[in-house]
Amino acid sequence: MTKSKKDGVLHKKISRRQLLKMTGIGAAGLAIGATGIGGILSTIGKDWIAEDEAPPAKNSVNFYGDHQAGISTPSQTHIYFVALDVVVKTKSELQQLFKDWTPLATKMMRGEIIGTASTDMIPPKDTGEALGLDAQNLSLTFGVGESLFKKINLGDKKPTQLKKLPHFPKDQLVEAYSNGDICIQACADDPQVAFHAIRNLVRAASGRVTLKWSQAGFNAIAKKDGHSQTPRNLFAFKDGTENPRAKEDLNKVVWVQHGESKPWMTGGTYLIARRIQMHLETWDRTALDEQEATFGRHRNSGAPLGKDGEYDAMEIERKDEDGHLIVPNTSHVFLAKSVKARLLRRSYSYVSGVVDSTGTHDAGLLFISFQKDPQQFIDIQNSLGRLDKMNEYITHRGSAMFACFPGVRKGSYIGETLFSTL
Ligand code: HEM
């Protein structure tokens, strides 16, 4: 226990562990209501919680910072993505929801259980399926959708950038995989840890949110000489080679800078999720040459066509001796590169059983991109338009956009700026 002086008054700072002991929620336990530990912690003044006392946990991603985790964080091997609709009706109820989620999120990202029940006669506080596993690099990323602002009066907080995406050629979107008031992206190096996190957050919000849609996904990340390799998508191509990584690139492409959107979004970003079915059966009947011409890259190495290394410069204007473009102008990369806009892509493959009507795999890519302005995505998707050779092999089935809050400061809570900043 440490002491701090504030406003001339001596406050005792108490760690979470000490607090849990005092309130009896530790091993001995105390029955607590539906809002759980979050409810209790959020009703106690912030000065009373010394968040920074906890040493870094094994295989954990930092919850606090200028930006939320799970965006520029190196990709984990699994995702569980969920879109929720709110049942709460007022700004203060919504604010309380995010306050209640905060201590649960910090605990789970540290690989800790979220609490124990007081007796064997009531349901355990933590659903328990992650017991014995460490944090598995769990990251939790929260965002809000356009529809939330229609349901809850948040004044003029809705950013102009947060709106429905236009209809793109060949879109076959279904509402069952689209939109939502709130999103939570859980990524971890273990699928059960990712699912456990969402399950427990949704459970703690029982009666306040409903599940709209969700999608599990995976990425196999091979290691070479100790270095993580770019994961391959279900067409077997390396996916994520060209991505902004340096801090200055992220500031240019991903993080909203002061004055670029509503003030509460500074340090945040816009997330676009597209559930894209990939027609594997058609792809598997396609010759390797044709597959490589579809992307403009070699399949095995990931190198630009005509080059050797994955990270060699693409230079789409290169021509062969006969004056023909080496990277076809209908290839995915040629078209994506033809516009100035850039994105941070952080996608995961999915397999979700069988498409009833065709008897084919329901498999594809949960495409996720982060950008400081959704127009960046719109410009690229428009360029891919009808021309992209890859269109023969894919169908966009789901679509959603969320404004992701900036990072959480110690002592604060998820989404605080939405409620406090102008
Ligand atoms: C199932 C759907 C998709 C698949 C399988 C796919 C696959 C790929 C692959 C293999 C690459 C080359 C390697 C790399 O740089 O990562 C690539 C690059 C890229 N893709 Fe996609 N992609 C898909 C959808 C999209 C969508 C919807 C967008 C955005 C509207 C997009 C934007 C880009 C961009 C910006 C690049 C980098 C181009 C550059 O080199 O500058 N992709 N994609």
From TrEMBL:
Residues 68-219 form the Dyp-type peroxidase N-terminal domain. It holds the Pfam family Dyp_perox_C. The chain crosses the membrane at residues 20-41. It is an enzyme of class 1 (oxidoreductase). One of its GO terms (molecular function) is ferrochelatase activity. Keywords: Heme, Iron, Lyase, Membrane, Metal-binding, Oxidoreductase, Peroxidase, Signal, Transmembrane, Transmembrane helix. GO terms for cellular component: cell envelope; cytosol. Its cofactor is heme b. It catalyses: heme b + 2 H(+) = protoporphyrin IX + Fe(2+). It comes from the Bacteria. It is found in: Cell envelope. Binds 1 heme b (iron(II)-protoporphyrin IX) group non-covalently per subunit. InterPro entries: Dimeric_a/b-barrel, Dyp_perox_C, Dyp_perox_N, Dyp_peroxidase, EfeB/EfeN, TAT_signal, TAT_signal_bac_arc. Its EC number is 1.11.1.-. Residues 230-408 form the Dyp-type peroxidase C-terminal domain. GO terms for biological process: iron import into cell. Involved in the recovery of exogenous heme iron. Extracts iron from heme while preserving the protoporphyrin ring intact. Belongs to the DyP-type peroxidase family. PANTHER family: DEFERROCHELATASE, DEFERROCHELATASE/PEROXIDASE. This is Deferrochelatase. It comes from Kurthia sibirica. The lineage of its organism: Bacteria, Bacillati, Bacillota, Bacilli, Bacillales.
